[in-house]
Amino acid sequence: MLFVVPVIILLAMVVRGLTADADVGGAVTVTDAYTGAALPNTAIVVNGQTLLTDDLGQVRLPARDRALPVDVARDGYAPIAAALPTADDGARAISLRPTTLRGTITDAATGQPIPNVAVSLIAEGSTGQTVASGVDGSFLLADVPPDARVHLDGGDYGVVDEPVGPRTDVAYQMKRSVVTGVVRDASGTPIQGAIVTAGGANTVSGVDGSYRLTGVPDGAEVLVAASGYSDLRLPLTPERVLDAALEPVLIKGIYANGFALATPEEIDRLIDLIDRTELNALVVDIKQDTIYYDSQVALFRDAGMVQPVYDAAELLTRLKERDIYVIARMVVFQDPVLAEARPDLAVKDPSTGGIWRNDDGIGWVNAFEEELWRGNIELAVEAAGLGFDEIQYDYVRFPSDGNLAAADFGQEYTGEARENAILEFLTRSHDALAPTGVKLAADIFGYTAFEDNEQGIGQNFAKIVPVIDYVNMMIYPSHFIEGNIRSAPGHPNDYPYETILESLQRSESVAPGQKLKFRPWLQAFSYPVEGMREYGPEDVRAQIEAAEEFGASGWLLWNPANEYDDGSLLPA
């Protein structure tokens, strides 16, 4: 019995108000500070006695002639200590602030609960707390301080951060800000290195073809592109899971020079050739000594280089109407007009105090100068915006001929420095073009592709190939010397098939696994050197067959006069 009596006494002290004959001093109502709802069964401690509010949240307190201290507490609410003034006939109210936050998190598109969302409380002077949403998407936070913020980290669903405010129950609908999927070819084989772009964001697929693209806004279109394949555009689905199956494509193109572009009859002739044959692409000069369309790039306008010979928008419209793939060719660092206009950007000749010139008397700009990088990248992005499908850099290198011992590049002229400059320029160019979906290609000396070094011009084939979309090796049989091509028993000019096939095979040994980025320039001209036989359509066809047998992503025919024999081409 010694333990029973104290329990009975304690229970007697927890009552709903006072007995009828007690001296009372008015009612107190306890309410929820956020909703104003009455709070029944709330404990009020007064004079050492614990009272419980009734179903209306009220309790009668003792009469008093002085302020009456009370302590009010309830689970899920912040306790308060108050001093009630002397009794009168009016009712008194005490409001308690809730300290719990319950919520649910669902997918805005599907309505399904989202588990494992990290839900955190953030408040000044507080260590905070973090819980994870359950399998049903629910969560509960306790001891929520005033002025707290709630922070949701949903991973693929992004982040929500906002004040808790006067709430105890919340429902969050989160949208996936991430698009995921797998890129495969038509046979189901994963494609590594595909570029996935949407809403200004871009990423690259991994070795298993998977990708994860973050920061994709609602309504965005997803562009999937990979070297050797046709682009695929996919509408964003509510689930934001997009797998892509890419179809292979062979680009078969010819070159159009500035004269042809300025002459409507010549353009008509080239378009007719494309319409009648297997051709599906045209390489269009946009920059060679001057800019051939009305560019707005300040570097070139200020140098007086913008001298339009065609309307780019009009030309692109005509070509696109025939579904012709259009490549914009830019000569980059052999830039004599800019070298004369801006000698501060040119290679210098200390012996003359002027600009350095190669054996043909042509001035070169200095490929170490980042102002040149920015200007050419700006031109590439501008051309992409006009509607070109691909940007092709030519002369993206340092000079190869002339008295280089007399050339001053303003810094140490080492192989490593040259290589790093070209690689950095190409990397920045590719990064700038990636959000546009327009491809970047670079022209490379044919023999450079055989060697794992920069060949004195900054072009390291093995390092360049990974940072661009296509590499155009200029594999002209006439430009080799006897002995260069092991499979050719004589001069390579007499063995066009062997020269192209072996060159591509040796290139792949330098850059293994990259053959879908190879799109060689083929010789569609006769080299005017004694001992070199003229090239006919059968020689051009032999080169085409070698490129296709190897598995290159197409080929381009080079003839500086734009004279192409359709006898070397298959009919459409």
Structure, described:
With 572 residues, the protein is of the alpha/beta class. It folds into four domains: 4-96, Immunoglobulin-like (Sandwich); 101-174, Carboxypeptidase-like, regulatory domain (Immunoglobulin-like, Sandwich), CATH 2.60.40; 179-246, Sandwich (Immunoglobulin-like), CATH 2.60.40; 251-263 and 283-307 and 320-483 and 496-551, TIM Barrel. 21% of the residues lie in helices and 27% in strands. The strands form eight sheets. Strands 22, 23, 24, 25, 28, 29, 30, 31 and 32 form a nine-stranded mixed sheet that branches. A four-stranded antiparallel sheet has the order 3-2-5-6, with no helix packed on it. A four-stranded antiparallel sheet has the order 10-9-12-13, with no helix packed on it. Helix 7 runs parallel beside helix 8 and helix 10 runs parallel beside helix 11 (537-550). The longest helix is centred in the C-terminal third of the chain and has 19 residues, at 415-433.
Radius of gyration (CA) equals 38 Å
Distance between the ends: 109 Å
Mean pLDDT: 92
Shape: elongated
Name of the level-1 CATH class of the largest domain: Alpha Beta
Instruction: State the low-pLDDT regions, or none.
Output: 1-24
The H-level CATH homologous superfamily of the largest domain, spelled out, is Glycosidases
Q: Residue share in helices?
A: 10-25%
Largest sheet: 9 strands, mixed
Structural class: alpha/beta
Total number of distinct structural domains: 4
Taken as a percent bin, the fraction of beta residues is 25-35%
User: How many helices in DSSP terms?
Assistant: 11
Overall number of strands: 32
What name does the CATH topology of the largest domain carry?
TIM Barrel
CATH architecture annotation name of the largest domain: Alpha-Beta Barrel
